[in-house]
């Protein structure tokens, strides 16, 4: 039967494996011709095929046929798009190759025309191969089944087949056992039991295979259904935990990940074992699945197999992780196109995650049926169920729902049809009572989604109940997640439905958009419950004092809801908030607040990470945007939740410190507590405070040290840090080495601080950042201070790479060695970077470079903002280019968002003035843009070398 075309894939019926059209593959493989060609290699002589020359010829012939057959299989995959058909065709090819090898060995190598009963064996496919499906890189799992113990001839046949398969490049898992051994091992080992469950005879003794099947069913399977189900579900849970326990990871494992093929395999194993069925249609007949759900099962399997087979064909290996590197090519192979707001790869991945969600839904439905089936097996089933239902605990205030083993369930199947508000009420009741959800209830919800219409969306009671779920004091994330997985949330709020399973093709976001939003709600709830008091002191403190708690939750739910649209998602999201909030009963003030929070949800993080918080204008500009203390509190909490929900490792103490600094600097401006003390007065106070802390120093030495620093240092560096720097400079000055370094780890901030004191010169920051890049260190921030005696005090903060402080300090020592090599001319930056092993970088991504020069962001400095595709050594090249342009870098602010970097430099010309010339600005933009377009250019220019020599620094040429 011919298969459907790719265009019709999403809506067409998926053929069963038995109906797969394998004609073209069979014709190119041509089993009869293959047998003749193999026989011709030995001239048709029996027993003459054991020589090395014949073996090599056999291997060459088989390789040619396999390559030709696989090429046809791949071509057919492109033509019809069916993954299940592709997997079945590859399995068929494998069957024929094994049969050809076994027949050749028996006839032309060992001449086994008259085998005794003890020498007969069966070659059985087990595991995934036993299901009749293979991906191009799949392992070939074989069981060599013996009637008794192994014979010499049997051992030779097995060895010949295995070595030939290995020589052909196949990965083969194998076991040689008697029927008795198979039964005994299956009883004690669940992995062996599962592999034999999927047995299929490839070639050999039929009666032996049938004996194993009969005994396995009677002696292993019967009466052990509950044991098998428990083991498989526990195995599934452990696998999910290992792979991240989310089906919405943006680089999913197609085989082992949550919502992947292995989850479908688990359902298949349990079906075969517990229900004694082999197809989805048989599960429909038993009432486990509806016809639509059975079709959904096949479509999910077909899609996942198509993705997996394309991955293996593309990479030439058993690649199971759908990484960023290959996602665009897989999307192209599957025929996805770009739509407004979504690239082709994002449309493909959205489809992938919707399929993964379908797999989760099917698992829930299946488990509900299993629970009912196991209840039926209990003695006195009808009496038990009748008495149980009468004893089931009621929920006060409703007759439509009951509590079953701490799970909310429906009183009857007409609950939702009778009152569609119950589609929302069930989640509100579960939240208020602290209940989980019975699989029967979720199953009925999924089958009643058509009841969620415009009337229900506009129903005041339904909207109030939804707000109760959203702002639940205990665990709103759990109930919103169940609501989303059941399909209710996306239908009740259609704009949310648009971002369900939507991924953003970048290395920054670890989850799909809907998963990110739900996780952010969970983080807010945990902050409210006081679980982050030590880690998030400001957010934990202010969240208890905000007056607008409900708008905060709504803003967090909506802050990324407009992702995937052509318009900026913050602006589009604010518009959606203005449309939605009145529906939920928000007044004009609350609606404006939610819309403002959505539109401004990136403002605080961008200001904290990309602006100089020591520059007074930064604080005043930010305060002007925020306007009120209540908004500042809400935006602070929202920002923390947003960043923490991006993914593991994105939040760290350094980002937390930046946000705290911005909050505490802005708060007095908004409350009127800040008095505009003249700069001279503040400077005088800061110098006096440091002098007081250094009172143990000799007065002359203390005064000389304080005179080394310029005004900006005293006004921007905390006093404790100033004291620490003073002790470091004092020790370094007593030595003879012109270069001094100090490393300090900070586990809370997740950074390692490296302080460098050395003679200043224009390329100093470039060398410092190059030394960091050569060790693979990711720079989080840089503070640059020039001393009056011509030395520079530079503080570089690199993101922590190791859990152990000793490992971090060893890395800091390597950075120190690199910096010294660069400064004394023993190395150059390109050479150091070339020594690093290439890592998997952002090759799959494209970020157009953008250079912005702004004189309005600071009263004293020109702000140069650069964004583009990150790479090793980029910051070193950028700072080197700025030095070549005769710009003095006063502060640098480094932000990395996955593959995208945003670096901001506060600069002046060499006379300390802003850059105002239009032609010079244009020259700066061209030069910095060229750093991205010509990353392999020479790092050290003649101009920079001349500057280094002028400052008495050895040039690194």
UniProtKB/TrEMBL annotation:
It catalyses: [protein-PII]-L-tyrosine + UTP = [protein-PII]-uridylyl-L-tyrosine + diphosphate; [protein-PII]-uridylyl-L-tyrosine + H2O = [protein-PII]-L-tyrosine + UMP + H(+). Its cofactor is Mg(2+). SMART domains: HDc (SM00471). SUPFAM superfamilies: ACT-like, Nucleotidyltransferase, Nucleotidyltransferase substrate binding subunit/domain, Poly A polymerase C-terminal region-like. Residues 513-629 form the HD domain. Belongs to the GlnD family. Modifies, by uridylylation and deuridylylation, the PII regulatory proteins (GlnB and homologs), in response to the nitrogen status of the cell that GlnD senses through the glutamine level. Under low glutamine levels, catalyzes the conversion of the PII proteins and UTP to PII-UMP and PPi, while under higher glutamine levels, GlnD hydrolyzes PII-UMP to PII and UMP (deuridylylation). Thus, controls uridylylation state and activity of the PII proteins, and plays an important role in the regulation of nitrogen metabolism. Has four distinct domains: an N-terminal nucleotidyltransferase (NT) domain responsible for UTase activity, a central HD domain that encodes UR activity, and two C-terminal ACT domains that seem to have a role in glutamine sensing. This is Bifunctional uridylyltransferase/uridylyl-removing enzyme. It comes from Aureimonas endophytica. The lineage of its organism: Bacteria, Pseudomonadati, Pseudomonadota, Alphaproteobacteria, Hyphomicrobiales. The gene is glnD.
